[in-house]
Design brief:
- The relative contact order is 0.10.
- By secondary structure, the protein is α/β, with parallel strands linked by helices.
- It contains twelve helices and ten strands.
- The strands form two sheets. The protein has an eight-stranded parallel sheet. Strands 9-10 form a two-stranded antiparallel sheet.
- The protein has two domains: about 230 residues, TIM Barrel; about 50 residues, no CATH class.
Length: about 280
């Protein structure tokens, strides 16, 4: 599993083993078996035992695991289970302690995907991104909203206003780039049966510079995957740009009344490269 290439990542609760194989068959690029929020404290031990048995039957580097926070009483159990050959990486909630991340990387020798979901985490974002073992950053908007006292999520029936997270999301993209990481993974879209809303949300994330998305239900996989594809409008635009580039031999040119220079041409090429890759 190439951690840097993952685009659709589906959560599955660690205490629901009957869903593990269904999640693997969902079409998502990866599943994240969740030992944290999805599992009540009273069920943690049983979930560990079940997961350990199931992992023994899986191919190497085939799943991700979200552990409990590094200051939780389950840290040692988390680290132990994540040393399984079947685990491809560790998703760390409430990542705020760079030393704890370093210790986890040393104990498990696994790629780390820390959740950035608190004011404290954002205050030391670059240090977290540069910590040993960190492969990609993950945005956690629900915990961040709680930490900051934001009016989110809204009551049922009111629209989800994702613009309130624009500053936070942009910081993850910038820090990932500065610290040489792959583009970050965006937060969940909480409306499970709203494919149009999910598609719009994912495309907004892509415009900001995210390249992966957390999913909470198999029904979200297909809409998220569609959102990752270039639209017909984008493809037509890219073809016009590249045709103009060929005519003008790379010089700055106007297309449909808009200036087109080297960065715009590079964007058009990237779109068409994605289209060609999908044909293979």
């Amino acid at each position: 599993m190439d951690i840097n290439a993952l685009q659709t990542l589906l959560f599955v609760p660690a205490n629901r083993p009957e869903r593990f194989n269904k999640a693997l068959a969902s079409g998502a690029d990866a599943i994240i078996i969740d030992l944290e929020d999805a599992v009540p404290a009273a069920e943690k031990d049983a979930a560990y035992a079940t997961l350990a048995t199931w992992l023994k039957e899986q191919p190497d580097k085939s799943v991700l695991v979200r552990i409990n926070s590094t200051d939780s009483p389950w840290f040692n159990q988390d680290a132990a289970i994540c040393r399984s050959p079947a685990v491809a990486g560790i998703v760390i909630p409430k990542a705020e302690d760079v030393e704890a991340l370093t210790e986890l990387a040393h104990l498990t020798e696994q790629p780390l995907l820390p959740f950035i979901e608190s004011a404290k985490a954002f205050n030391q974002l670059d240090a977290i991104a540069a910590a040993p073992g960190v492969a990609r950053l993950v945005f956690g908007k629900l915990d961040l909203a709680l930490d900051l006292g934001m009016d989110y999520p809204p009551p049922a029936g009111e629209p989800l206003d994702e613009s309130v997270f624009l500053y936070a999301r942009s910081q993850l993209v910038m820090s990932s780039r500065v610290n040489g990481l792959a583009a970050p993974i965006d937060a969940v879209y909480t409306a499970i049966h709203d494919p149009k809303g999910l598609t719009a949300y994912a495309r907004q994330g892509m415009r900001l510079g995210f390249s992966g998305f957390l999913l909470i239900h198999p029904a979200q996989v297909a809409p998220a995957q569609r959102a990752l594809l270039p639209t017909s409008t984008q493809i037509t635009w890219a073809k016009h740009i590249l045709a103009a580039e060929q005519r003008e031999k790379g010089a700055v040119v106007a297309v449909s009344g808009n200036m087109v220079d080297v960065p715009v041409m590079a964007r058009a090429k990237r779109i068409m490269e994605t289209v060609e890759a999908l044909k293979k």
